[in-house]
Amino acid sequence: MERMKDEINQRLLQLCEPLKAGKVKEAMIYSLLAPGKRLRPLLFLTVLKSYQLDYHPYMDIACAIEMIHTYSLIHDDLPGMDNDDLRRGRKTCHKQFDEATAILAGDALLNLGVNIILETSLNDALKLQLAYLLYQASGVNGMIYGQQQDLYFENHKASLEQLQDIHKHKTGELISVSLQMAACIAKTSDIEHWKQIGYDLGLAFQIQDDILDVTASTEQLGKNAGSDYENHKSTYVTLLGIDESQNKVEELFEKCYERIYAMQINHGLILELFIKILKRVS
Question: Which cofactor is recorded for it (predicted)?
Answer without folding.
Answer: Mg(2+)
